[in-house]
Design goal:
With 159 residues, the protein is of the alpha+beta class. The protein has four helices and ten strands, in the order βαβββαβββαββαβ. It has one domain: 7,8-Dihydro-6-hydroxymethylpterin-pyrophosphokinase HPPK (Alpha-Beta Plaits, 2-Layer Sandwich), CATH 3.30.70.560. The longest helix has 15 residues.
Length: 159
């Protein structure tokens, strides 16, 4: 079994419901959910005129290889009504693969660790809550240290 960290985000509709449904689908279709962070409300990143997000990080264990995991995650987004219109646009659900064990993956459709996680407070706050000592396999630093060195000033508040 591989430990996988996923970031869930939603800024449209019944945000809490979308997070809950995403976790349920992930548990049923991807692997056992081991830990869930608190839910955090965050300002929109990248496209700052969008509604605020709810974000949550989950740790799960799976036997799926990385690209099969990605396929399932994209399928779950689709089931929940995700429509891809524009980069960083509003969405009912977004599921990002942050870490896949300690592997470094550079495929055209999947980069792991997530290439911008070290720049994003909305990712690092919930991740540091459940895995502060997790070592980033590229930066060779733990999540808490990366979070503490962050320059991102976006407002991220724990609900």
């Amino acid at each position: 079994m591989i430990d996988v960290f996923l970031l869930l985000g939603t800024n449209l509709g019944e945000r809490e419901m979308y997070l809950q449904q995403a976790v349920q689908h992930i548990a049923e279709e991807v692997g056992a959910v081991i830990k869930l962070s608190s839910v955090y409300e965050t300002q929109s990143w990248g496209k700052t005129d969008e509604p605020d997000y709810l974000n949550q990080v989950i740790l799960l264990q799976t036997e799926l290889p990385p690209l099969a995991l990605l396929t399932r995650v994209l399928h779950i987004e689709s089931i929940l009504g995700r429509v891809r219109k524009e980069r960083w646009g509003a969405r009912v659900i977004d599921i990002d693969v942050l870490f896949y064990g300690d592997q470094v993956i550079n495929e055209p459709q999947l980069q792991v660790p997530h290439p911008r996680l070290h720049e994003r407070r909305f990712t690092l706050e919930p991740l540091a809550e459940i895995a502060p000592e997790l070592i980033h396999p590229v930066l060779n630093n733990n999540v808490l240290s990366i979070k503490n060195a962050l320059k991102d000033t976006l407002i991220v508040k724990k609900l």
